[in-house]
Design a protein that fits this description.
This protein has helices at 19-35, 44-47, 54-70, 87-97, 102-106, 109-117, 124-127, 129-138, 152-169, 212-221, 237-249, 252-263, 269-295, 298-327; strands at residues 6-11, 37-42, 79-82, 144-146, 178-180. By secondary structure, it is mainly alpha-helical. It has two domains: 6-187 and 297-327, Rossmann fold; 212-292, Orthogonal Bundle (Tyrosyl-Transfer RNA Synthetase). Strands 1-2-3 form a three-stranded parallel β-sheet, sandwiched between helices. Strands 4-5 form a two-stranded parallel sheet. Strand 4, helix 9 (152-169) and strand 5 form a beta-alpha-beta unit. The chain binds tryptophan.
Length: 332
């Protein structure tokens, strides 16, 4: 049997999933879990670098777990676990820290950004964030790591730490994890404010947990212009954005109908938005219902994370044993 590629990604437990996340990373994770040996974990240690309250930390972990499960991550297909349930990662982090240098950590863009944003809390965890991320990846000897642009430098550091370890101990032990870009397959969902993409920091998100009234309100408020006056004119960005969303959630004939009415200047944005809100709701409602039912089923969530931790431990403990041996921690 050919060994499947190992794919791994960490999920920050912050905020709810929006449609942009769904059609971006989440859908691809769901696909990958059947094609690769897939590891997905909730990076709760990483989120400590910004000091959440204990209730927020637990609540956020639970919420993202429920949301990813509701979107189709399958705990039997993938290894789905919580970072803090795997102490092997923490030990590897300690060991990697011995070969990570202050200068290179201080030069990391994400560290500099965070230090600027929270000058009152420039903690050592923030500085060594890339080391913990490298430990997450190397503990399972992942081949590929799907990450966004903002994480590419951290992944570069993971490769550097892997190579450095191999060089220091004269071994071919760690693989260099490569970034995995979904590229063409990635559908970009625009926001409703006529600007770029949907995002939580932009405040323009349609969330999977939003109820019907919330979705309707957001869509009705979406930015539009005064409407076409010249037949066959080019659409402004904000109208194109609404059509992009319609293309994903509405029937093709609905999209064609409104597109034609734009072209002949008979479109009424109110009608278009009403239809769009209906179609978004039909799409997200079943997911919302699954999120609510999963997040209230503590027994199930407990089963999921226990299974995940067991599966993750199998691969993690074997890596860690070898690392300890290589470094020179040997049994008497
Ligand atoms: N730093 C990543 C983010 O902010 C989350 C993360 C933690 C991660 N450990 C990882 C991603 C390992 C990929 C691999 O999104």
């Amino acid at each position: 049997m050919i060994k499947k590629e190992t794919v791994l990604s960490g999920i920050r437990p912050t905020g709810n999933l929006h449609l942009g996340n769904y059609f971006g990373a989440v859908q691809n994770f769901v696909k990958m879990q059947h094609q690769a040996d897939a590891y997905f974990f909730i990076a709760d240690y990483h989120s400590l670098t910004t000091h959440p309250t204990p209730a927020d930390l637990h609540g956020n972990v639970k919420q993202v777990l429920a949301e990813y499960l509701a979107c189709g991550l399958d705990p039997d297909a993938a290894t789905l676990y919580v970072q803090s349930d795997l102490p092997e990662t923490t030990e590897l982090y300690l060991l990697l820290n011995m070969n990570a240098y202050l200068g290179e950590l201080e030069r990391t863009t994400s560290f500099k950004d965070k230090a600027r944003k929270q000058p009152e809390n420039v903690n050592a965890g923030l500085l060594t964030y890339p080391v913990l991320m490298a430990a997450d990846i190397l503990i399972h000897k992942a081949d590929k790591v799907p990450v966004g642009k903002d994480q590419e430098q951290n992944l570069e550091m993971a490769r550097k730490f892997a190579k450095r370890f191999n060089r220091m101990y004269q071994v071919e032990f760690f693989k260099e994890p490569i970034p995995y870009n979904f590229g063409e397959e990635l559908i970009k969902i625009p926001g409703l404010d006529g600007s770029g993409k949907m995002g939580k920091s932009e405040g323009n998100g349609l969330y999977l947990v939003d109820d019907e009234a919330t979705i309707r309100k957001k869509v009705m408020k979406a930015k539009t212009d005064t409407g076409p006056t010249v037949p066959n004119s080019e659409m402004p960005e904000e109208i194109k954005n609404l059509f992009t969303i319609a293309q994903i959630v509405s029937k093709p004939e609905t999209v064609t109908m409104f597109r034609n009415s734009y072209l002949d200047c008979s479109i009424r944005y109110g009608d278009f938005k009403k239809q769009l809100a209906d179609d978004i709701t039909s799409f997200t409602l079943p997911i919302r219902e699954r999120i609510l039912s999963i997040s209230s089923d503590n027994e199930y969530l407990k089963k999921v994370v226990t299974l995940g931790a067991d599966k993750a431990r199998a691969s993690a403990s074997s890596t860690l044993n070898e690392v300890r041996h290589i470094i020179g921690f040997r049994h008497f």
